[in-house]
Design brief:
Helix content: over 70%
Number of strands: 0
Strand content: under 5%
Order of helices and strands: HHHHH
Shape: rod-shaped
Structural class: mainly alpha
Largest sheet: none
Length: 185
Amino acid sequence: MLKSGWFWLLLALAVFWSLGAYNRLVRLRSAVGQQFMSLESVLLQYQEVVQQAVTSASTSPQLWGNSYSAESDVDPWTRLQICAGLLTVAMARMQTHPLEPDSSQSLQDAGAALHQAWASLIHPDAFYVNVPEPLQQRWWGLDLLVQPEVQRFNACINEYNQAIGQYPAALLAKLFQFHPARPLA
């Protein structure tokens, strides 16, 4: 009778521990999604700046300069709008799958392409339209705002990855298919 009592006690402890560990993994996964929503709110502001820059360039003839360097086949304004659209698509994918490495890679690639398009547009010798100074300032401000959000997102990812890598919880993670996530660079 004593053996069966110990057996049931150990079984109950194992079940309660498993439920607690599973709930922790689910909470950490949820925290990653919530932190991405905070990051996404800042990233969406890049789209607003792009639209304001395109609108101001098309409606303000005084912004048009005389120098034009056609080194590429793609219009820099078109490239900027396409890159902003790709960033929006990558954010939508990341919102639904924040822990998939492919999602974070596509978000990084789209963000890098958008920054390259913006840099080529605001370069003084690169194009024949000047982006207004307030929009350039807002872009740089967004660059400063996004860094802490990325760091907080990466901290959530690292905490999640550590939790699914610890020995007893790793068994549950493997059983319930919790896969490691990739932080943003």
